[in-house]
């Protein structure tokens, strides 16, 4: 690979670890956990553990692929290599478009979160400011992006650890609140499953979407200093992070306050801290959620720029890096497209963005399944049999088939749920259209 087409490798292990960690903690935990608790009750803990296990299995498959060929700039390159150019085309552009849409939705959310403190200011102004700042970080240096993501992730971690420590202290001290004495039995005293389990299956999709973006470490991997050391360490620690940050936080939430008292419309973090007498809870959690949205937008700019760089023909305008080995043109083009959200907010209501975002999320299941099939193909190839093997996926191929079945099961749940049926059908149409375009592309070439 020539220097003109080569990405920088300036991200350290510290950056990659935080990027991987930030990818598993999003607004789904801070905002969406209330709805999950209401639908599943304490059984939501088991839902997150099961979902986390299969997400971890998918990441192990990704990790083995990443370390098999360091010249691939994104994991989509492996899909193209082992499943063919048409599959690479479909999944590559799906991933790029999906992250563009997510970025637009996160940008819209940032404007709304800022109005919590400054309701008199226009949302588009804050959207423009944040987009400009994060774009600048992404084009100055890869290390600047890494530093920003490090601190964004750290803020989220501090908030979650504060919740867990609060729960431990209150249980040990039997602290009395407005809802009674805090004790471990609060977790199961109102039952272990909500609504006799009628909505339990639907919470799997909510847990899955909470982990959306965990594969982002696969994009950052191409720019780490020592991938053989940092990638295995980051991926192996995912299972620990799931247990501590998701299961630990949800456990603390349901111990401090009975799970039956939570509202799906408000952050459970805000509800807990408000009920124990912290009057500034809403402001603090709003800051954390703002940070989570900014982190997602920051990652989206990084990802979409690298994806567009990777998808563009080698000699094209967008497939070039600057003197700092950053795909400046591809990042700029993606950012301009994301910036359309600022104008579109005047035309479309907020629900339109939520609808499109859920459509993009449904397509990620297709990408993850393709990634697992790619790993199966790799295991049968000469590259695996003759090459140096690093970080082998445990129990393959059985673990591949089980994880694929789990992912397809979530897709069926999405398709059968009235709230997500329309967006899932739209995602299917999306794949069909891109497949037709890939066929036409091959014929024209």
Automatic annotation (TrEMBL):
Where does the record place it?
Answer: Cell membrane
Span of domain Amino acid permease/ SLC12A: 15-434
> Which residue ranges run through the membrane?
16-37, 43-67, 88-111, 123-142, 154-176, 196-217, 238-256, 276-305, 326-346, 352-374, 395-415, 421-440
Q: Which InterPro entries did the record assign?
A: AA-permease/SLC12A_dom
- Keywords assigned: Amino-acid transport, Cell membrane, Membrane, Transmembrane, Transmembrane helix, Transport
List cellular component terms (GO).
plasma membrane
Please name the GO terms of the biological process aspect recorded for this protein, alphabetically: amino acid transport; transmembrane transport
| Superkingdom of the source species | Bacteria
Q: How does it sit in the membrane?
A: Multi-pass membrane protein
Task: Write the protein's name.
Answer: Amino acid permease
